[in-house]
Amino acid sequence: MSHPEVLGVVVVARNGDRTECYQDPITQKSEYTQSTPLGEAQAHQLGAYLRNLYLNPSSSSHIRGIHSDLVNLKEVHVRVKVGGEGAAVFDSATALLQGLFPPNPANRITLANETTIVAPLNGYQYIPVETVEPNNDRSLEPWTDCPAFQKHVQDVQNSAEFKEMSKNAQPFFGALRDFVFGREASMENVYNIWDFVNSELIHNKTYAHRLPPTFIEQARGYANLREDAIYSDKAMDGIGNIASRAALSSILKALQRIAFNGDPLQFMVIETTYQPFISFFHQTGVVDSHPELKAIPDFGSALAIELRRAPPPDARDFLRFKFRNGTHEDFRTIHVFKHHEDIPLTEFIYRLENSVIDSNREWAQACSISSDSTGWLGLPERATTGSKLADASLGVFLALFAILAMFFVGKAIRRRRSVRLSGPEDRLSAPPSEIVVQYRDQKSHVVPF
User: Fold this and answer.
1) Per-residue b or e along 366-377, where b marks 16 or more CB atoms closer than 10 Å to that residue's CB
2) pLDDT over threshold 60, residue 431
3) Which of 95, 202, 250, 273 is an S-S bond match for 40, by CB 3.0 to 4.6 Å?
4) DSSP string spanning 198-263?
């Protein structure tokens, strides 16, 4: 792995500790939760860890040329999942950025009257984030409102293997009932059982003193088995891997931007929940050599994808993957697709290109959503077509249609003085959020999801 020069990094981070969060066993939709001071501290610690690793000039993994003291907003981009667990994920992203770029008194401005103003909190650095809402962008929460994924969940839970696991777990569920206070103790609901027990064990002193030894380990073990089965698939492009298939769209685009010498992006953070980690480790074959990763990652976990450039005469870019489970260990290098060293960026893209979900239209197709249930053009509400050319053509067509309609209506009004319209007005939903990518010495490009 003789690729010492780090050009940039994409970090996928899990949110920190939060209050109990119920998740529907079939739809996988989450109820409201909020972060805790512990969770914010975990995310802040992760941010400080990343700063020391990638922004410290004395680090062997220092990103070449990045501004480390005062953030350059062209070099850093942050995407935050705000669907299920959204409040906790957003708070974790904020805390991570506080650790990554702490307050700096140099964050100041001198006004025309020669008065110097330092940003609040002794130079706090305000870094904008892109919130990703599932109503208009499915890249960070593709598993909800997805009929094909719900069928996958039901198929998993109806399988012989799952029923055998459920049978083996019955003695434990019987012993646990006095500690879950009326919650359904079953393999189908085991994630919620573990989440409750874990939350109480952390936050409730009385509960922690009463819970018998090994109960939390057993609950976590069964929850790992279920979530690993739900968020994985034997086929790389299978519906069970939908969490990582959609997230990889943002990851690959960021890596390509970092690799392009004319683009200033060098550091991207994707703040999300646990699901994409499980799917990614299956989709890229990491679990073949690291079976311990067939599990729910701890709060504050992170996957770092480093883009490294080979020394001359080899002009290729390579990727190195590092994973950190929770906040109590350092990054360790893991390998994808059975490589035992860094993988070329081009090969990584080639292996994944037919399984990545790049647009809302592709998400709808993967989820078996018909045009009748998604509205005009067969797309979810507030979605684009998934093709920049098609979107532009559609926009031009609608604009011309509106101009012609106004022209003929105007003529009719002049002739008849009044026009009566019947029937409801058709409305098109608003377009989704778009990222405007400004390349050096080039025009801006709009990159829709």
Assistant:
1) bbebeeeebeee
2) no
3) 95
4) HHHHHH-HHHHHHSPTTHHHHHHHHHHHHHHHHT--SSTTSGGGHHHHHHHHHHHHHHHHHHSTT-
